[in-house]
Design brief:
alpha+beta; two-stranded antiparallel ribbon; 6 helices; 42% helix; 29% strand
Length: 146
């Protein structure tokens, strides 16, 4: 399970060092991750094992037309990347453009159960501010989980 929020510095090629707690989990599932377009200028990242589960759920729960749409609009847009020997991962170029990066070349990596998201730090803060009211409205239910 992925959890936490990590500030990661990207190099000029679009690589960043995966924080060790996250890297260990990814490496346990293989060296490869899948990147997909996420909500609100973010990217989704799945380990190989979790991506295979997504594909299996799609295969078993979608009808033929829905499956074609899923393959055309999601799977065809996905990009893979391997963790290199130094623990870096490359965000595929066409997907990297979806997360606007500031001059400081930093991204936020957010762990979300079975997947992760990558955000521009400014966009992440704006997203949290926009959703603060919803969080407060649901605080009692959230607290009961803890």
């Amino acid at each position: 399970m992925f959890a936490g929020e990590y500030l990661c510095k990207m190099d000029e090629k679009g690589r960043f060092i995966v924080p060790s707690p996250i890297r260990e989990q990814i490496e346990a599932d293989g060296q490869t991750v899948m990147f997909l377009k996420g909500p609100e200028q973010s990217l989704l990242i799945y380990s190989t094992r979790e991506w295979e589960k997504v594909l299996e759920r799609a295969r078993t729960s979608l009808d033929e037309d829905q499956s074609r749409l899923f393959m055309h609009s999601v799977v065809s847009e996905a990009g893979s990347s391997d963790i290199d020997k130094t623990g870096r991962i490359l965000i595929p170029g066409r997907l990297r453009k979806l997360v606007p990066v500031d001059e400081d070349q930093e991204v936020i990596l957010v762990g979300l159960y079975h997947r992760m998201e990558i955000w521009n730090p400014s966009e992440w803060r704006r997203y949290l501010a926009r959703t603060q009211d919803r969080f407060e409205q649901n605080m009692a239910k959230i607290q009961n989980l803890l």
